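Regression test attached.
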Amino acid sequence: MGIADYFRERRSRRNSASVAKERLQIIVSHERAERGGPDYLPMLRQELLEVVRRYVTVDPDAVRVEVERDGPHEVLELNITLPEQSGSEVSTQHGG
Amino acid sequence: MARIVVITSGKGGVGKTTTAASLAAGLAKAGHRTAVIDFDVGLRNLDLVMGCERRVVFDFVNVINGDARLHQALIKDKRLENLAILPASQTRDKEALTPEGVERVLEELRQDFDYVICDSPAGIERGAHLASYHADDAVVVTNPEVSSVRDSDRVLGLLASRTRRAEEGMDPVREHLLLTRYDPQRVKKGDMLSVDDVQEILAINLLGVIPESKDVLNASNAGIPVVLEEDADAGQAYEDAIARYLGEERPHRFLEVERRGLFGRMFGG
């Protein structure tokens, strides 16, 4: 193993814990948002996914539904990611 | 009136039973009357880790079904007079634990003990739910590893919503983090999540950090709760964690790589 490989390996190894931390922070905050929200969210998400899939083929995780608190308001945020060839991301927001 | 403590994690194989055995033995050693219950119906293991597998006559399900009285099923530990073990049943019937039966047994144990430790099965299904439902305190056993941390967070969500304390609007279950199989050397290299990382993500009180140690396997091989092995680093870490649980302030040990002299580095393994 050359000295360059040695240092490359050292660097990539040093990163694995921080990659783990970053991935965990994202998934945990995502799951907590879902958890805190109303019970109908998973169902709403599933039905939206079915409607979208009548028109476009998308991944199961293409539809994201989140409820965020903004002072006295609750914001329902819908994020639908379309596949790349059919254009960029479509994003809709409703406050209520 | 006893406090009920659930040992839980979501993920399997992270050290729940090891922790239940050591927490129970440590509390008993500190003078508290302690009972420890194996909730893992179908897969009985706590008896083996505590070294009383040959003395099991009746089990948790026998008591629930009325086939045996609680005092007949409780096994008195031979080392510690304050310690009793209620073994799991090996029945394959998943419905064998009923919510009413569990409640009745826990209420009876509450009268005679100071602490009742519930060793939860892995997962978030029926058995795990029943083990945590009556808890006053929870020890969430976590490995510094992505799937374990994520599962612990799920479990924390359930403790906050699907326990008796949550449903009846009482003070919430007190949650404690116990990080096990910790390897400071790998943390230093950047290969393993650090205790600070895990605590930042889960954001609950840190009860203790148990180092990865051959003593844990040696102790379970012999049927001795590792906390009773006073020379073992893992045993000492459990003893610290128990003292903290009882309100004592103790600094965390075993978080740093052991310093070795030149001699040790040259000839050590």
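Expected vs. actual: identical. Chain B touches chain A through 17 residues (CB under 8 Å).
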